Amino acid sequence: MNNKLNSKDKIVKNWLPRYTGTSLDEFGNWILLTNFQDYVDKFARRFNVAVRGIGGPMTTATSSDGITIINYRMGSPNAATIMDLLTAISVKGVLFLGKCGGLKKSTEIGHFILPIAAIRGDGTSSDYLLPEVPALPSFKLHKFVSNIVLQHGHQYRTGVVYTTNRRVWEYDRKFRRYLRRVGALAIDMETATIFVVGHVNSISRGALLLVSDIPMAPEGVKTDYSDREVNLKYVDLHLEIGIESLQRIRSEGETIKHFTF
Question: pTM surpassing 0.70?
Fold first, then answer.
């Protein structure tokens, strides 16, 4: 028996359970990604299921109707890792439920953003595709998400988001001027990575981002207090829209085709 991990397929099938504490046959075909543990905990309570992987690098919970939520922690390297590891199972679609900083005066805390593309300032995605290749979602998946947002009586904004590998940049005037020049609607740390690595791995992917702070304004930089307020007011709805979007796609039997550039 050959136990050597000498191919991508062997590596990811060994590593996905190791990283998540979840066996391959316990994963659903539809995946919600988050980097906040409270999303996983809320999901588990909603479906009365166990949280797996506690104490390890990543945690999961899986509903009886085939949706798995994964907390992959934070940052573009972790986002790339989970998008690679998901090739170990038969994934029909991945929706990232992330938080972002609004960069425009028209974006307010609590707004939802469906990115039409992401600027690749993350660095990680350059290990997968040439820098000039755009980071794009699967638009059919976004169609379902947009409909669910509207059914909940909320509006959403579309535009380009900037994905950065920097966590503490709010004080940097040069970088702030750069963000104004590129005209991005919002900033986050993972969207471009998920789009690019998903494309490379032929995984249909999308992102529904929640504006959690307004970092271009001194009073808008996220604090412990403001983050708690956002969690209390908006996280339940954010998660519910994600769940209902995947449930709708699954129930209507939609196939999200993957196209190459």
Answer: yes
